[in-house]
Every structure is written in structure tokens, then in C-alpha cells.
Automatic annotation (TrEMBL):
Lineage: Bacteria, Candidatus Roizmaniibacteriota
Glycosyltransferase recorded as keyword: yes
Name of this chain's protein: Glycosyltransferase 2-like domain-containing protein
Family: Belongs to the glycosyltransferase 2 family.
Domain Glycosyltransferase 2-like: from-to ranges: 5-171
Superkingdom of origin: Bacteria
This protein's UniProt keywords: Glycosyltransferase, Transferase
Alphabetized Pfam families for the sequence: Glycos_transf_2
A GO term, aspect molecular function: glycosyltransferase activity
Length: 297
């Protein structure tokens, strides 16, 4: 039987890490065996480490970075210590509602020859005005991303939940070049090196959007900085191809969402503000961008 390991990079995730581990241990797996769940704590200062260590399941273990290194470093470390046939990486601030989530996420690797899969992200309900604007913006974006090339594009390869074949995770390395862009880079690396990517729309992972403008701008810096990282390290022609989206699809999707969620109009100035902020701040080496309001899930 094929084997599975789960890696959870975490920094100050005491509010959710216990529930996430409990949920993962209750997952139903048909043709793959869960070997272990490894939480890599990036110098957490809250009760994250204590919560992980309190688990009585021997498959749950904690690995601590001796200094803050960020998610990309933690992924490299997870891959280096893993030997399972499949490694699933899950963000610590996410919610899983489906007991078959893991089986759905790894199935294309087990049965269709895929090397990388990504779950479809779903937003938990927002209460704040900013959060509701961002909810509408995500409906707009996902309407584009999953239609374009049937989801076979860089935009659907979200880092919140992915599965890697052993062949891929033993080959890829993020290092210091891709600290903010590790999710996009994993997709591009697949394409360049003839690995196979598969977006799994039936495997849904839930998360909370930032509920304040400062938190959103802080989180947006990761996206803008990720493109800067990729530009610095990957051929421009490759990036233009990977990030291309048809104008007709963008306009059509915006008009469709506008009729249902007119609040999306407020997203335009937010996008402009975030973009302008990124022009003055190219510091992509921050170990971990934390949007506090997105942690209250």
C-alpha cells in the first residue's frame, strides 16, 4: 500500500492547529496509509508547540526551526526528512470539512499519474465590510482561474493544500530564491520539468480572508513579491505564458460577479492601493507574513 505523510508549516497557530490535526487524523483513506503528521514550527511564541506535543497519537510529531526561516525553508526541511510515496502540505490556518478530503487530494497522484495536486480554496464567511469585499473579489478570481484551461494554470495552484509525489518532492527545492512564491514556483517547476499538475476541485479547503485593510495589504505583499521573485529567477517568456489570462474572460467574469455582488466595485481602489504599495516595498524576504484578522476562524 502507498504511504502518505502530512506536513504543516506553522507560526503562532495555537487557535487552529489542534483542531486541524484532529480533523486530519479522522480522514478516511482507501488506498493509502497515513504514516505521520509533522508540524514544523517556525519559532512559534504562543502555544502551538505545546498543542502539537499534547497529541496522544504517535503519528503526530513536532519539528522546530531554531530561528524563523519562513514557509519555503520549512517545506524544504519537510521534504528532506520525508520518505512517503506522497507528501501533503497544508497551511495551519485552514479548515477541512470533508472526511474524504485527503483521499480526493491524493487520488490523481495514485490513479492518474499526477505529481502535484492542489485543493480548491473556499472562503469562510466574512463579517467585516472589507472581508465581504474580498469575498466578492475571490468569487471573481476563481470564476476566471477554474475556467481558463480547465484550471490547468498557475493561479489554481494555491499553497493552502497541495499533494506532491515522491518523484517531485525529492526533486524540487525552494531555497532562498522562492520564499514568497513557493506555491507558484511549484506549478512552474512542474511545467518546466515535465511533471504533471492536477487541480482537484472536489477537494475543498476553507480559510478566512483578512478582515481589515491593513491586514489585506500586508498579505497582498506576498503575491506581488512572489511575482518579483519569479521575475528575478525565471525567464520572462515563461512567466508571460504562465500568468496570461484572456481579457474577454476577465471582463465577462467581472460583469457576471458585479450583477450578483456589486460590492466588488470597492475592490478596485483596494487593488490599486495594494499595487502602489508593492512598488515601494520589494522586501520579499520577510519570513512569515501574518494577517492577524485571518486567524480568527
Amino acid at each position: 500500500m502507498k504511504t502518505l505523510s502530512i506536513g504543516i508549516p506553522a507560526y503562532n497557530e495555537e487557535k487552529n492547529i489542534g483542531l486541524l490535526i484532529e480533523t486530519l487524523l479522522k480522514q478516511k483513506l482507501d488506498d493509502i496509509k497515513l504514516l505521520k503528521i509533522t508540524v514544523i514550527s517556525d519559532c512559534s511564541t504562543d502555544k502551538t508547540d505545546r498543542t502539537v506535543n499534547s497529541s496522544t497519537d504517535l503519528r503526530v510529531n513536532l519539528v522546530k526551526n531554531i530561528e524563523r526561516k519562513g514557509k519555503a525553508f520549512s517545506l524544504d526541511r519537510l521534504f528532506s526528512i520525508s520518505e512517503a510515496d506522497v507528501v501533503v502540505i497544508i497551511d495551519a490556518d485552514t479548515v477541512i470539512k470533508d472526511t474524504n478530503f485527503l483521499q480526493k487530494l491524493v487520488s490523481p497522484i495514485l490513479n492518474k499519474g499526477a505529481d502535484l495536486t492542489a485543493a480548491q480554496i473556499e472562503e469562510l464567511p466574512s463579517r467585516s465590510f472589507v472581508g465581504q469585499i474580498l469575498d466578492a473579489s475571490m468569487k471573481f478570481k476563481k470564476n476566471i482561474y477554474y475556467k481558463y484551461k480547465n484550471g490547468q494554470n498557475v493561479y489554481t495552484c494555491c499553497g493552502r493544500a497541495r499533494a506532491f509525489s515522491k518523484k517531485l518532492y525529492k526533486s524540487i527545492k525552494f531555497g532562498k530564491k522562492f520564499t514568497s512564491s513557493e506555491d507558484a514556483y511549484s506549478y512552474i517547476y512542474c511545467n518546466i520539468n515535465k511533471f504533471t499538475y492536477y487541480p482537484v476541485v472536489l477537494a475543498k479547503i476553507y480559510y478566512k480572508l483578512p478582515q481589515s485593510l491593513p491586514d489585506h495589504i500586508s498579505q497582498s505583499m506576498r503575491f506581488f513579491n512572489s511575482k518579483n521573485e519569479l521575475t528575478d529567477n525565471i525567464d520572462d517568456n515563461i512567466l508571460k505564458t504562465e500568468y496570461y489570462l484572456p481579457t474577454s474572460l476577465i471582463v465577462g467574469s467581472f460583469l457576471k460577479i458585479l450583477t450578483k455582488y456589486p460590492i466588488i466595485l470597492f475592490y478596485i481602489p483596494i487593488l490599486v492601493l495594494s499595487s502602489l504599495q508593492s512598488k515601494f516595498d520589494r522586501s520579499s524576504n520577510t519570513p512569515w507574513e501574518v494577517a492577524i484578522s485571518s486567524k480568527n476562524i
